[in-house]
Automatic annotation (TrEMBL):
Lineage: Bacteria, Bacillati, Bacillota, Clostridia, Eubacteriales
Source taxon at top rank: Bacteria
GO CC terms, sorted: cytosol
Gene Ontology molecular function: porphobilinogen synthase activity; zinc ion binding
Protein name per its UniProtKB record: Delta-aminolevulinic acid dehydratase
Binding site for 5-aminolevulinate 2: S273, Y312
Amino acid sequence: MELIERPRRLRKTPAVRGLVRETRVSKSALVYPIFVKEGRGIAEPIPSLDGQFRYSPDMLHVELEKVREAGVPAVLLFGLPAHKDECGSGAWDDEGAVQQALRLAKRDFPELYLITDVCMCEYTSHGHCGILNGREVDNDRTLEVLAKTALSHARAGADMVAPSDMMDGRILALRRALDGAGFSDTPIMSYAVKYASAFYGPFRDAAGSAPAFGDRRGYQMDYHNVREAVREAALDVEQGADVLMVKPALSYLDVVREVKSRFDLPLAAYSVSGEYAMIRAAGKAGLIDEAAVACEAAVSVFRAGADILITYYAKELAGWIDEGRIG
């Protein structure tokens, strides 16, 4: 038998590249985060997140129309109340910003899938993710208000709720509350692996949610740890989570891969505000090709194992998929 003298490789023509591509990106896997602010007539730019806005519920249609036109199927809503208090009561107010936005979006954009963030940090005067006992977060008391918030969102039309608080036992508390109120079909996307990260800075500015004292390292994860991520995800799976999430994304691709290899549930990764802001700023400064870098970053998340990408670039990525720059 005649031996081949040298290894042969496929000629990387455009057609061949498409046929043999290992990682594929679809619009159907994108989720776009939106900030909804209590009030009327509000469409204000967010300085720390260039290109992003805070919308009052009555103005949300401006953004949702763009989302629909881009072909992005899902949004993740964050609520910003007009007034904050110690217990974050605006979170479960049936006339709160998120609740109003859900009802309007369900009426006007029924094809969009509506996910809501369930947490307290945007609503509390102290900026922590739960009810305080002195200067510490009271885990069990917080579970009660998180469940009330999730129920309020489900009643207003949320298709999925996404607790981001990192309290112990929150998935079970939400599952029991939802099931008991007749929302057994409402899935839970758990922020199962949420690190105490400096990459959240622009979000905290956008939401006014920076802690008034201390930090969140007591309930968010140490970024040195991977095995802890597996333990946290396992607990949420046992308690009834339907989708797991790793947050942030780009500095934690090893964690994305590890969680995906361990659990047979859909896995989301959240490319957070700091990741977006860095790419955006470098692009505007002419230091990088913004579109090329954003596409490459998105592919890296899917290549690591994510099934869903939550990103402030969702609309642009949808357009670049249409252009054939990514896909």
